[in-house]
Amino acid sequence: MPENRQFEKHGGATPRGGGWLPHGFHLGTHSHPDGQLVYAAAGALATTTERGTWVAPASRVTWTPPGFEHSHRFYGRTDARLVAIPADECGGLVAYPSVFAVSPLLREVLLALTAPGGRSPESEKRLRAVVADELGATPEQSLHLPEPHDDRLRVVTDLLRADPGRTTTLAELGRAAGASERTLSRLFHTDLGMSFHRWRTILRIHHAVVHLTDGQSVTDTAVACGWSNPSTFIEAFTTVVGQTPGRYQAGLHDHVG
């Protein structure tokens, strides 16, 4: 069960507020009448919808528009912050689930909106307007792991999810899926919009975020997630997340609860 739970939910309203959640806490598939931002002020989370999975360390916030089915899983002891955006205020935000970078201003507004004690409705509405302005930029795609539709491709991605560190080639995976390497390579581009190498790299980065949040070293994380040496892992992690794994891990201790 959540610890020190402070989330508010009245009737069928979208949950809001803040609270500490234990490592591995999972919220199953559900939807809300309003939009929802979920931010890990400490720890990390994954939001999954039919469009794929987004991992959000403390430098990112996930956005789910009204009506989209989604689930959440939290990694590390997580200071989870939930902000409900009324449906009539969602017109200026993207109409599909996504993840955004968290600027210093956006972070402070998210913390203010989820702090104990609450604010007047007028004050909250003004703060939500600031949130909408801050989320006006294009959503980030770097941490998005899309879901396949093709059955052959799903066999491959399921095998990779079961063991992200496996070094199996696409040709070897194709034998298990009943498709040629050339066919699978084409499917990755047409169905998922990225190469096999890119999809597997993002999958590994998702798992690396979890390992680092759980306190594992950069070297151990690199090995567990399939990199042959830490320097290659550091380069890939920095490209996708925007900071080195060491800096990411150090930052976990800097965020307030």
Automatic annotation (TrEMBL):
It comes from the Bacteria. Keywords: Transcription, Transcription regulation. Residues 1-21 are annotated as: Disordered. Residues 154-251 form the HTH araC/xylS-type domain. Residues 1-11 have a biased composition (Basic and acidic residues). Gene3D superfamilies: Homeodomain-like, Jelly Rolls. This is AraC family transcriptional regulator. It comes from Amycolatopsis heterodermiae. The lineage of its organism: Bacteria, Bacillati, Actinomycetota, Actinomycetes, Pseudonocardiales.
